[in-house]
Amino acid sequence: MLAVTLLFSLLMSATTYARNTSSFDHLSTGFTLDGAHDSADCESCHARGIFKGTPRRCASCHAITSRLGGERMPPNHIKTSSSCEDCHSTFSWKQLTGFDHDSVVGSCASCHNGRVSTGKTASHISSGNNCDDCHTTMSWQGARFDHSQVSANCASCHNGSTAGGKGQRHILSGNQCEDCHRTTAWTPVTRVDHASVTGSCSSCHNGSIAMGKSPRHISSSNSCDDCHSTNSWSGAVFDHNSVTGSCANCHNGSTATGKNPTHIRTSMLCEDCHRSTGWSPVTRVDHADVVGTCFSCHNGSIATGKSSKHINSGNSCDDCHSTNSWSGAVFDHKSVTGSCASCHNGSTATGKNPTHIQTSSLCEDCHRNTGWTPVIRVDHADVIGTCASCHNGSTARGKTSNHISSGNTCDDCHTTNGWTPAVFDHNSVAPGSCSRCHNGSTATGKPATHVQTTAQCDTCHSTRAWTPASFDHNNVTGSCSSCHNGSVAKGKPGNHFVTNLQCDSCHNNSRWTPIVFRHSSGGYPGDHRGNLDCRACHKSNSQTVTWRAPSYKPDCAGCHANQYKPDKHKKYESPKTFYTVGELRDCSGSCHTYTNSSRTTIKKRRNNEHRVTDGSFD
Predict the structure, then answer these.
(1) In what order do the strands lie in the sheet with 593-596?
(2) In the Cβ-directed half-sphere of 414, how many Cα atoms lie within 13 Å?
(3) pLDDT digits (tens, 9 = 90+) for 459-468
(4) Contacts 24+ apart (CB under 8 A), 520-527
(5) What's the whole-model pTM score?
């Protein structure tokens, strides 16, 4: 009878408890009910109405052997420790939050067998290794095989059975893979160790397996290594030191290449002009070996002859030139007793041409005795006439098209040393009167692209140069856009933010950047933390704000309605009801939790839970 009474009391307690759970704040126990726990029956965890000692670990309720009411681990679950939270959340078993291999019990293959989880693919190398011998738990990619632990040579594994071996096209070689390959990959090979290659050079270097003789190769039956080393084709060596005869003994056109038909007439001493390493370039032309006169070669066909600019002369080349070079031809003017003009008169020797400037006849004042050009200088003391008699654009350089309009003679501004620097003394000009000359007629005026202004030139420019110019915006009357409209001065670029505000709303008059703008609209919620980019709200790159939820503008929900979480905003406990996004559209307002739907008693106060300066809603 006592047992029956006790059982009845327990049942009544549980019934009473069940009737009062709706007003119980489970958070006060230190165990938050979230996800699927929030809708679970109390009896699922508090068996027989006993609260004290209720287990908190997932496995206490969800293990296969658990006596509590939680959904149990299925029999086909992979073997793991009992820390459910390592992989699952409280909201759903199927949506894994992660996969912690540290909690798995057993070998890799107990799961990665092709049934429970991905196993070895068909292209996987044949191996009895466990997965973690080569792979990490982070990814299949980046597998590592530590060849440093291998005690035998490569071929003991890379034999085509245990692991990949030589392909059908592999060159004939020994089995020391490591002589040419690295342990990280077959290609690229680090080198080809010819010591490991079996067979002759041509067994590989036959143009099929490896590079063979090119079409330009000299006719030869030699094996490659007679002339080449195993390091490179280039640098082939033929030791001419062992030759006892002259070059022509071999280079006779039969034994080896000889003179071609266009070769100049010479003796047979190849080595006087050529090197033993190559025919060209020649080291020199030894004229002592040349047969015939200079002209027999230097006739314009076999070798360079007199150019069209050569002075009229019946001399032989070597009368003026040496065999070392054309340049540096020598005529000894020291033996001349008269002036230059005594010879250079147009008869005895070249004189002044028709376009020569009007001067005295002292050639040496401007020219050197080694050549007419370039002149060493123009001695204006020898020039006859005014500057313009030469500097007229025909005889000598005159005023350029961009020269200021002026009736001055050259030497009014320029010296005989150079056109620049030209000197014009602006000190005699009264300040503020620049435009009297710089009017586009007397001197350069404002170009068509100049900003519209009535200011005198010296307001912005110096007397030394137009640029750099300085511009004082403090003297500007009117709005920025009256000048910065893309015509008078630089305006908005094509990708500029679309706005009707004036430039100085965001820019200063020193430079375009950095941009500073402060919102003054009453509907602006305040600066968000994180210094948002303008396009985060102004998605059309204009003043118009693109609201994600226009029905809630201008409150926070106008942008953040899709981030609203009802289960985080409980309205009252009985019956359990949550605020809608419309009720809390102003995120920074209050959202108290009441005891019941009468909303007369506040169970939990919450004011200014969210602020625009917060990093997130959490």
Answers:
(1) 577-578, 570-574, 593-596, 602-604
(2) 15
(3) 889 888 888 8
(4) 523/553, 523/554, 525/554, 525/556, 525/588, 525/612, 526/612, 526/613, 527/612, 527/613
(5) 0.29
